[in-house]
Amino acid sequence: MNGLITMLNQLESHRLEVMLVPLNPNRRGWNEGGCRRCLADQNAKWYRDFCARFPSSRGTRKGGFDTVIRRANVLSALNRLVSGAGYGGKYRDELVAVAKKIT
Fold it and tell me: What is the pLDDT of residues 81-100, one digit of tens each?
């Protein structure tokens, strides 16, 4: 149970967040108003590993990784498992296995 609570707290407090940072104006070839993307926060390690186990068959337009896992479904399943109110959905067995590894 502690593992599930930890997972729920980590998933609620961390998410992938990217911010735009202006390019250095002193750099040669600088594009005025140009920015680059920098990682501000990322998902919890267990969630990244969990998503990596369920790749989507479609991928993305630019060929990047995509997953069939949806964050809202995982949050809902974790809330149900922690509260003991219900089954926990289709991710129940996988989430319980991850929780056992965390504790």
Answer: 998 876 767 888 889 999 99
Structural domain contains residue 36: no
Residue 54: which domain range? 2-13+44-102
Tell me how many domains the chain contains.
1
The per-residue DSSP string of the chain comes to -HHHHHHHHHHHH---EEEEEEPPTTSTTPPTT-EEEEEEE---HHHHHHHHTSB-SS--TTS---BS--HHHHHHHHHHHHHT-S--GGGHHHHHHHHHHH-
User: What is the pLDDT averaged over residues 53-60?
Assistant: 81
pTM: 0.77
Helix axis angle, 45-52 relative to 2-13, nearest 10°? 90
Tokens (6 digits) for 79: 């809330």
- Please report where in the chains the tokens 């479609």 appear, as a residue: 58
